[in-house]
């Protein structure tokens, strides 16, 4: 079965780019069904436009509130007949309508080895700063199913990255980021092949 994937991204969408490039290279049996961003100036939308992929900006300001934006996102994904929703640096909490419509079918990647260094407020550079401050020897990336709590759902796969002596949050972020795209692609390949079941 060819997976129809919907993407949610706020900025660059690096994970989304890795997945789309794997599809284009024939390494993943999937179709980019729609790309949604809450940020009208995001590079994710530029990427989608350049590749002539379906794309739209949906946010509370344009929709008339958070509830309306949630309903618009859920409807857009359903109209695109999406099988899976992939979050790629999406900085908004997923609303209840979208969660209900795609229960156990929304995936996120987090730049640490969950359950460590996750939860509300733990995103971007904050995660890597916390890892460095804690003095742990290992970090990495985690692909997990999204539920109604931040960074909480079922863990599907992890990539491990050593924390090196002298690492800064920036240098650690760079090495973790290098693992994120390939890890996302591997998980989606397993789902497409029927080796990994979400429900």
TrEMBL record:
Known EC number: 2.1.2.2
Occurrences of domain Formyl transferase N-terminal (ranges): 4-188
InterPro entries assigned to the protein according to its UniProt record, in alphabetical order: Formyl_transf_N, Formyl_transf_N_sf, GART, GART_AS
Reactions performed catalytically: N(1)-(5-phospho-beta-D-ribosyl)glycinamide + (6R)-10-formyltetrahydrofolate = N(2)-formyl-N(1)-(5-phospho-beta-D-ribosyl)glycinamide + (6S)-5,6,7,8-tetrahydrofolate + H(+)
Pathway where this protein functions: Purine metabolism; IMP biosynthesis via de novo pathway; N(2)-formyl-N(1)-(5-phospho-D-ribosyl)glycinamide from N(1)-(5-phospho-D-ribosyl)glycinamide (10-formyl THF route): step 1/1
Top-level enzyme category: transferase
Annotated Gene Ontology cellular component terms: cytosol
Entry similarity comment: Belongs to the GART family.
Name of the protein: Phosphoribosylglycinamide formyltransferase
Native organism: Alicyclobacillus hesperidum
């Amino acid at each position: 079965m060819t997976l129809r994937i919907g993407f949610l991204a706020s900025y660059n969408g690096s994970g989304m780019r890795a997945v789309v490039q794997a599809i284009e290279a024939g390494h993943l049996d999937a179709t980019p069904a729609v790309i949604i961003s809450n940020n009208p100036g995001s590079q994710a939308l530029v990427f989608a436009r350049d590749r002539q992929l379906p794309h739209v900006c949906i946010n509370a300001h344009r929709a008339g509130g958070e509830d309306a934006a949630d309903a618009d996102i859920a409807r857009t994904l359903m109209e695109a007949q999406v099988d899976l929703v992939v979050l790629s640096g999406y900085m908004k909490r997923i609303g209840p309508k979208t969660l209900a419509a795609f229960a156990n079918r929304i995936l996120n990647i987090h730049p640490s080895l969950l359950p460590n260094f996750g939860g509300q407020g733990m995103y971007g550079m904050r995660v890597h700063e916390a890892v460095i401050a804690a003095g742990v020897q290992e970090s990495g990336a985690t692909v997990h199913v999204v539920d109604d709590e931040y960074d909480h759902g079922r863990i599907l796969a992890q990539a491990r990255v050593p924390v090196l002596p002298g690492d800064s949050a920036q240098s650690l972020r760079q090495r973790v980021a290098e693992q994120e795209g390939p890890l996302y692609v591997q998980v989606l390949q397993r789902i497409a092949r029927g080796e990994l079941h979400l429900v």
